[in-house]
Write the structure tokens for this entry.
Amino acid sequence: MDPREPNARELHGIEYLAALDQRLTEYESVLRRRLQETPDGWRQYRIAEAAVDKVITGLYGTVPEKTLKHMRRLSETGQVIIRPKPIVPVDDPQIVLTSVLKVLVNTSIASECSICLKEGAEVKKCKLRKALMLSAPPKELTDGPRCPYADVAVGCALGEYL
């Protein structure tokens, strides 16, 4: 099978299987004594560990290099958290390469902020300004009626804000 990009649900499933594989390996020594005291527990644990390892290795062979790099970053910086499902849906944080974030921020500022004439209350309601403040706050915040990103757009070469 040729490597192809997984869709969002497939990627999410691969991420969970990778986390399971990592945790089975990580907790093997911690659980070993208890598993050995359980009838056939240690053997079944090792079988599960080997099976999950084979599955995740096989899945890695079906995805492109870019996805493998994403999985490596996720395993190095991510953590598995079990918590109750929220009643109201919330946004899930995502891992994004800095180069990708730069493209998004620079394009947004070039296309929107460089021609923006909003002031005062309009600035505070701007969804793009709020998103940019969370992901790429400007180096200097000015006290004034204008948006800091409009000032960034004026002070930099087009598309070179970050």
